[in-house]
Specification:
About 25% of the residues lie in helices and about 40% in strands. It is α+β, with helices and mostly antiparallel strands and about 150 residues long.
């Protein structure tokens, strides 16, 4: 944890950074939430201030909407979003800022997923919800796609 009330997951992916970026940024339905859950992209306006809306579908018909805006979209490097702002700059009950990034490392890529929270209490709540297991599972799914997909 840092002064940002941060939770982090990182993994090395044996694939070129350009490939990992394309899967990470443009194929989220395949890796973004741990199986057997599925992610559906509702709308992604990939620019700072653009809408970032997804729906997560559980194996028993559960639905969990994720609504927010992009804070950053640095093509080829990282994107960040938050649920603290929705719609036309409307404040919402903030939970976190999510940051997903890639950087070259040796012959492969270092993927890092970061969740920053407004308070230590919110960070602990996210941790207790299974942050580590969930985000590690998603990172493993991303890794498998990138390393096995031609």
């Amino acid at each position: 944890m840092s002064e940002h009330n941060e939770l982090t997951v990182t993994t090395y992916i044996d694939a070129p950074t350009e490939k990992v970026w394309k899967v990470m940024a443009y194929r989220q339905t395949e890796w973004f939430c741990p199986a057997p859950w599925k992610a559906e992209v509702v709308e992604q306006d990939r620019r700072p201030g653009g809408r970032d809306a997804m729906m997560f579908h559980g194996p028993d018909g559960e639905e969990m909407p994720q609504e927010g805006i992009f804070l950053a979209w640095d093509e080829g490097r990282r994107f960040a979003s938050t649920d603290a702002i929705v719609g036309d700059l409307e404040p919402a009950g903030p939970f976190m800022i999510g940051i997903w990034q890639v950087e070259p490392e040796g012959d492969g890529t270092r993927y890092t997923g970061i969740a920053r929270h407004w308070s230590d209490e919110e960070r602990k709540k996210h941790e207790a919800m299974g942050f580590l297991q969930g985000w590690q599972a998603a990172a493993a799914q991303l890794k498998a796609i990138c390393e096995n997909d031609s």
